[in-house]
Design brief:
single chain, mainly alpha
């Protein structure tokens, strides 16, 4: 319950409690707080039991911690079952990028700069207009791609 409270914070709380309530009333206040915490726990456990009973036998393994979205996804989408590790290990981004880069560089080296494309040494000459391609040179229209 108090996993994130360190020793310095706990000492500060104890000193403040002694100063606020006094050493005479502090044991009574601690008993009242503990009694209240027990009642809250009992109430929440009975509410959970009532909810499980109302849901029926189909939800025997239902846990309220599963209502947290992260826990729900972890429980229902087990990465071992989907083979996500194999997909991650089989995909090498550096290798894919190197292949794309090699393909682009080989395409640039295949095109000749004096063929009227307006390029000089890998650069595009913006002063020249590109040649007007014929209607047959246009790629086919793909309605699904737009």
């Amino acid at each position: 319950m108090f996993n994130d409270i360190g020793p310095l914070e706990l000492a500060t709380i104890v000193v403040l409690a002694v100063l606020v309530f006094g050493p005479d009333k502090l044991p009574k206040v601690i008993q009242d707080v503990m009694r209240t915490i027990r009642k809250i726990r009992e109430f929440s456990e009975s509410a959970k039991a009532d909810i499980r009973q109302e849901l029926g036998p189909e939800f025997k393994d239902f846990e309220f911690e599963d209502l947290n979205p992260k826990n729900f996804v972890r429980k229902h989408l087990d990465s071992e079952e989907l083979g996500l590790k194999e997909i991650r290990n089989g995909f090498d981004l550096k290798k894919e990028m190197a292949e794309v880069t090699d393909a682009v560089h080989s395409r640039e080296s295949d095109s000749s700069p004096s063929a009227g494309t307006g390029t000089t040494g890998g650069r595009i000459d913006m002063s020249k207009k590109p040649e007007d391609p014929g209607k047959d040179d246009r790629p086919p229209f793909d309605a699904d791609a737009t």
